[in-house]
Write a structure and sequence with these properties.
Length: 167
């Protein structure tokens, strides 16, 4: 099956070639992928990234853990709470190598989970979230200045501040 799929054949092509149903080939493929990717080996994982993704209103949020050295997704779970990581920590606890570093957003749920289960790990807040938070605060600060200047009717200050901020 793998050698056939390496030839860029569709499930329909393989089913036709093997004279079996599409469902039969799909089931074989699902079993193969589940066996191969269901529980990645965590024994050498020392640097991880934790984040959540939104999968639509039906599924909601999923917590995703990535091996930062290989970029492989090593764990997923529904939700974005600290409890969403319990299964990961239970599996990792059986491994000898501890988690050395964790990159995550500024969400308290993930930070508290890391502090509880990997207290010696270095916690790194990912750059995207730091820059996003900084920009939000900067915009808020500019709006406060704008409102204060409007109250004072300081048209020169408003003009200068608007030009400096690019708004």
């Amino acid at each position: 099956m793998l050698s056939l799929s390496a030839l860029n054949m569709t499930i329909s092509d393989i089913a036709r070639l093997c004279n079996v149903s599409w469902d039969c080939i799909k089931e074989i493929q699902k079993r193969h992928l589940n066996k191969k990717y269901r529980q990645p080996d965590l024994k050498d994982v020392t640097h991880i990234g934790i984040d959540e993704i939104y999968c639509g209103s039906k599924t909601g949020f999923m917590t995703v853990v990535i091996d930062m050295k290989t970029s492989a997704v090593i764990y997923t779970e529904k939700g974005k709470k600290a409890a969403s990581l319990d299964g990961f920590w239970a599996r990792k606890k059986r491994c000898k190598k501890p988690i050395e570093a964790v990159a995550t957003d500024m969400g308290q749920a993930y930070i508290s989970s890391v502090n509880e289960h990997a207290p010696n790990a270095k916690l790194v807040i990912d750059r995207f979230h730091v820059v996003k938070r900084f920009n939000e605060k900067l915009t808020e600060f500019r709006r406060d200045i704008q409102r204060a200047a409007e109250n004072k009717d300081d048209s020169q200050f408003l003009k200068k501040n608007t030009l400096a901020s690019g708004e």
